[in-house]
Structures are given as C-alpha cells and as structure tokens.
Amino acid sequence: MPINLFKKKISQQDAAILLFQTLHDGIRKNITSDLELLHEYFSLPQNLSSNEEDLIRYDIFIAALALETQAIINLSPQDKNVINCLKDYILKNAGTEVNDYIRSYINIYYSYSKKGENPVSAVAQALYIKIKGRVNSNIKEIDPITTTVIESLLVSKSGTWKTIKNNFKIKK
Q: pTM, whole model, 2 decimals?
C-alpha cells in the first residue's frame, strides 16, 4: 500500500465526527444483511418491529464504536483526546439520555474486553446478551459458533479508525 505523504490535516473534533458518521453510515447500509445473519444464528423472531430492528442496529453500532474507541486507546494513545471529542459530539447531537446510554454501554463493553484476552470476543458476548434481552425471546444460549458469527459481524465493522489515521493527519 503506498504511503500518502501529503495527508489532509483535520482536527481531533473532525476525526471524532468522521469516525462516528462513517461507522454509523456503514452499519445502517448493511443492517438488512446483518439482521438476516442474526435471524439465522440467533433464532430471532421473524416479526421484529421496526423499532426493535432500529434498537438492534443501534446496539451493533455501540458495540462497534466501543471497539473503535479501544483501538484508539491501544493503538493511538497520542489521539486519546479524540474520545473526549467523540463524547462531546454525541452529547451535543444526541441529547443527554442517549449520551448516557451510549457511554454506559461503551463502558460495559470496555470492561468486558478488559476481562477477556480477546476484546472482540468479549464484546461479542456482551452484545449477544444485550440483543437477547432486547427481544425478550427464548434465544438459545451462546455457543462458540454464535460467538464467532457475532465476532465476524463486529470485525466487518472495524477498521474505521485505521482508515482515518491512514488518510488524515490529526492535529493536536
């Protein structure tokens, strides 16, 4: 891959907004195939309301965002302030209730990932528990295949932060 010597400079605030919007748009674009996958492996009820589907999409987004914030902390500690900019952006645009919800679940996913050796697996298990509770159904207990399916779903959403870092120089 060629190295881009003349990267466009963006602020940390712009990097946070770009991370949020790119990740959100990608999840929204692929939600139909994601839900089909979840229906197949979770035995989700076929008659989910559009509100339940939106909430599941939102849960997937928050889990993916938690993994991206962990990538920032682990791989780009010099850009850790981007996480504060991300929190400010969410609070400014989503309101207090939604911000508290996102922050609490990012913290939950982060604590799960700190306990496990594989953060993606830990977040996948936490996401499974969240979706299982969301649809209030008799979804089977998590097994290695289901964990792998959710991991692959989350991994397919990852890499947004790396793409931003490869394409832009983030100003301090």
A: 0.84
C-alpha dihedral (4, 10, 16, 19), degrees to nearest 10: -30
Mean pLDDT of the chain: 82
* Calpha distance 40→24 (Å, rounded): 23
Question: Which among 90, 83, 53, 91 has a CA at the least distance from the CA of 67?
Answer: 83
Domain boundaries, the chain: 9-40+48-165
Cβ neighbors of 137 (< 8 A, separation 6 or more) are 43, 44, 45
Q: Which two tokens stand for residue 105?
A: 């679940």
Going by DSSP bridges, is the β-strand pair 8-10/168-170 parallel, antiparallel, or unpaired? parallel
CB 120 within 8 A of CB 154: yes
Output DSSP code: residue 43: -
16 close to 10: Cβ distance less than 8 angstroms: no
Per-residue pLDDT at 121: 85
Contact 162, 1 (CB under 8 A): no
